[in-house]
């Protein structure tokens, strides 16, 4: 599964730029609070970004998100 949008109808939509940025911070080992402070967001917004990523990509764990974040094509 790729994190970039494709032309196929059944392909998952790509995360928005701020969602990708949030994912990068989490993949780098930052907590939700540290990510929020670094990005100038509330912790609630960081949580919302991560929930949307999980829904778009149909993944359930932070480990899966991290694996996708470090794979080529993000």
Keywords:
single chain; 74 residues; mainly alpha; Arc Repressor Mutant, subunit A
Please provide a brief summary of the model.
The chain is mainly alpha-helical. It contains four helices and no strands. The chain has one domain: Winged helix-like DNA-binding domain superfamily/Winged helix DNA-binding domain (Arc Repressor Mutant, subunit A).
Corresponding CATH architecture: Orthogonal Bundle
Please state the structural category. mainly alpha
* Arithmetic mean of pLDDT: 85
Proportion of beta-strand residues = under 5%
Number of helices: 4
Biggest sheet, open or closed, and with what strands and sense? none
Beta-strand segment tally: 0
Radius of gyration (CA) equals 12 Å
Order of helical and strand elements? HHHH
Number of domains: 1
Uncertain spans: 4-9
Shape: globular
CATH homology superfamily: Winged helix-like DNA-binding domain superfamily/Winged helix DNA-binding domain
Distance between the termini: 11 Å
Estimated helix fraction: 55-70%
| CATH fold field value | Arc Repressor Mutant, subunit A
Give a verbal description of the structure:
It is a single chain. With 74 residues, this protein is mainly alpha-helical. The chain has a single domain, classed as Winged helix-like DNA-binding domain superfamily/Winged helix DNA-binding domain (Arc Repressor Mutant, subunit A, Orthogonal Bundle). Helix content is 58%, strand content 0%. It has helices spanning 17-27, 32-39, 43-57, 62-70. Helix 1 crosses helix 3 (43-57), helix 1 packs across helix 4 and helix 2 (32-39) packs across helix 3. It is globular and about 30 Å long. The model is unreliable at 4-9 (pLDDT under 50).
């Amino acid at each position: 599964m790729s994190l970039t949008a494709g032309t196929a109808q059944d392909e998952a939509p790509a995360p928005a730029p701020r969602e990708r940025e949030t994912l990068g911070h989490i993949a780098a080992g930052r907590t939700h609070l540290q990510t929020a402070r670094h990005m100038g967001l509330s912790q609630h917004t960081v949580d919302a970004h991560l929930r949307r990523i999980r829904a778009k990509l149909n993944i359930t764990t932070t480990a899966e998100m991290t694996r996708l974040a470090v794979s080529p094509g993000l």
